[in-house]
Amino acid sequence: MSKRTLIASTVIGAFALTGSAAVSAVELSDLQKEDAKIHAAAAKSQEKINTLFEQSQELLVEYRSVVDQTENLKIYNDYIASLVADQQRGIDSLQRQIDSIEATKQGIVPLMFRMIDSLEKFIELDSPIHLEERRERVQRLRDLMANSNVTVSEQFRQVIEAYLVEVEYGTKMSSYQGTIDVDGAEQTVDFFNLGRTALLALSLDQTHAWVWNNEARTWELLGDEYLASTVIAVKMAQGTIPPDLLKLPIEAAAE
């Protein structure tokens, strides 16, 4: 092979190596760009994954909260249901009581009228202690029974209260002014009653005294031996002197 041929071959080989290196550099650059794109795409994908994960975590927390609220609401609804059931039982009980009130009224109203009638008869047969006051009380009860604005319970309460007042007349000592019939003439006197044991009357000038005879339904004049005791008894009841032992005309108990 001639020298010129060798030189030419060498030059051609150099150019071939140079071209090959240039091609390799271009391919490497392209690979690097593609790799960068892949990394960028991977980074974006990772961001999306992170975002989706965070959203899923938030949804999970929200779901658990909703589940807890649902459970709490179920417990609360069960509690409210038990209260409603208890209230319904109370309403049913009240309704039964209301239904029975009418039946009770039908029995208690006639009873009250009988009680008032009995009270009136008792007053007329009893010693005339505060007689007019007691008669007026009976009349008020009758007016009350005819008043539609007064409840049955209030009517019954006042009837019972009238009976209690009658009980008190038999347990107290009292003195008050009034009038009695003496031989057809009306005379003002000071009354004295020791419960229902004794009912006396003293003239205002303290010169005469009378005792009520309930069996005869009349006033009887007392002898002078009881006059001083009657005066003291009236003063004791009025509170002007302290209580003390007295000699009073008291009817003996009969069998």
TrEMBL record:
It comes from the Bacteria. Keywords: Signal. InterPro entries: UCP028069. Residues 1-25 form the signal peptide. This is DUF3450 domain-containing protein. It comes from Alteromonas confluentis.
